[in-house]
């Protein structure tokens, strides 16, 4: 019943009309029969009732349940505001060891990082951790809050990189390569304090990507804090860094250090608030204008 209701809602028909037809024909009625009954009742899709919309947008309106003219195709998620945000790929080992002061693999640090990006609206978040971290902790590799890894794995956020034992020795795949490769393919952001210099030397495209898309961070009193200027003072803000379509800041004019004593006139590149309603003439032009005024007055008197 719910699937048929959703299907005909996407076609633009009202819920009341659909429910009436389903009650008359029964829940096992075919979609063609329901459609014929809706047409017989005189029910029309919203896209056909609203004649103001252009003809090329009618199909879009019928594909969505909203009455506003949509710009998305059938099957797309209407309320997917996360399209403007970049995918996030987290170096789980780096984050966990940083939160544990490089002594303990703190899984709570990973949870703090994931929650921070969730609150911002990011939906694609992946955390990479070696598979051997699922094993019971040992004295040489202590792990805190290991149950968090299981919860994140159930949420399809945490991904284990392969590892196995050969003749009693652990063979571990390079998890950094997974992190950089997935972030590069998704055109996302890498969350880590590692610079991945070996991978930068390996691939020139990865080198540029790591330099431009690496988001470093700090933990301050169990608070995940990335910098407001990830690429330096003259780089983009954190919001623009995490967005696919950065918003350019408004140009702020710098006040002229000379103020009213400035002699550059309209050639001055700084801002003069006192000249907003004045024609910014050069000093020479201002002097000429002042000289012309008494001459014209003298001619009128004569």
TrEMBL record:
Coiled-coil zones: none
Entry keywords, A to Z: Endonuclease, Hydrolase, Magnesium, Metal-binding, Nuclease, Zinc, Zinc-finger
Gene3D superfamilies: 3.40.50.11980
Chain positions of all zinc fingers (C3H1-type): 250-275
GO terms assigned for molecular function: hydrolase activity; mRNA binding; RNA endonuclease activity; zinc ion binding
UniProt entry tagged with the keyword Zinc-finger: yes
Cofactors, names only: Mg(2+)
A Pfam family recorded for this sequence: UBA_6
Residues covered by the C3H1-type domain: 250-275
One cellular-component annotation, GO: cytoplasmic ribonucleoprotein granule
Annotated family: Belongs to the ZC3H12 family.
Name of this chain's protein: ZC12D ribonuclease
Organism for this UniProt entry: Orthonyx spaldingii
Originating gene: Zc3h12d
